[in-house]
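Backbone-to-sequence.
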């Protein structure tokens, strides 16, 4: 798939096939994250790949899914992620708040590299940091910044353009398809001057 098509076809996935992802693929995906732009080329990010059954069971309840439609948007028992990639920040290396850009760039590289492999992803910023830190035995010098849940998709959400001022909350229709409102390009683009 062309990069542009991959980007525009990406949607957040929260229902996954119960099929493992090869570790070699997960490492390849993380490599795409590693090579993302980094503020001052400081590269404060490290990654935990969590695939072990018991570990995934412990991680799952500490993530919050699809807040606008909770608990309807929670993956069911047979829809849970096949893997997690947890993005850590080495606090000794990072300074100011610029590391957030690094995390975003890295996470998007990971998401798109995963999509190229047919793997869906959900970014989880809303999770119990203390619990995840303990579960994964993360040393104190690191913070857990973002959890990425991954797996082969079991859903195919759709986006639609909304007019100015219309609600931005995603919803599921009667057949369970997730619809994601996006602000229209013409409403957010400014050529030369605002
Ligand atoms: C920084 C960040 C944090 C997010 N945290 C969560 C989360 O905790 N739980 C969740 O279900 N989705 C989370 N999402 C996914 C958003 O809900 C999703 O990107 C948004 O609804 C737009 O849908 P789309 O990704 O399909 O375009 C997060 C996205 C971003 C960028």
């Amino acid at each position: 798939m062309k990069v542009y098509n991959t980007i525009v076809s990406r949607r957040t996935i929260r229902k996954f096939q119960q099929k493992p992802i090869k570790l070699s693929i997960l490492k390849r995906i993380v490599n795409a994250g590693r090579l993302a732009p980094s503020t001052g080329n400081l590269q404060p990010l490290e990654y935990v790949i969590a695939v072990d059954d018991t570990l995934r069971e412990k991680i799952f309840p500490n993530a919050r899914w699809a807040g606008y439609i909770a608990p309807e948007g929670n993956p069911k028992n047979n829809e849970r992620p096949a893997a997690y990639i947890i993005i850590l920040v080495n606090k000794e290396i990072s300074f100011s708040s610029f590391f957030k850009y690094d995390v975003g760039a890295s996470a998007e590289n990971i998401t798109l590299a995963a999509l190229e492999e047919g793997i869906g992803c959900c970014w989880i910023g809303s999770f119990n940091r203390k619990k995840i830190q303990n579960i994964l035995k993360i040393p104190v010098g690191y913070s857990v910044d973002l959890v990425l849940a991954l797996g082969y998709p079991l859903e195919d959400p759709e986006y639609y353009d909304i007019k100015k001022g219309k609600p931005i909350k995603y919803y599921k229709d009667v057949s369970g398809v997730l619809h994601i409102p996006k602000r229209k390009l013409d409403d957010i683009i400014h050529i030369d001057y605002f």
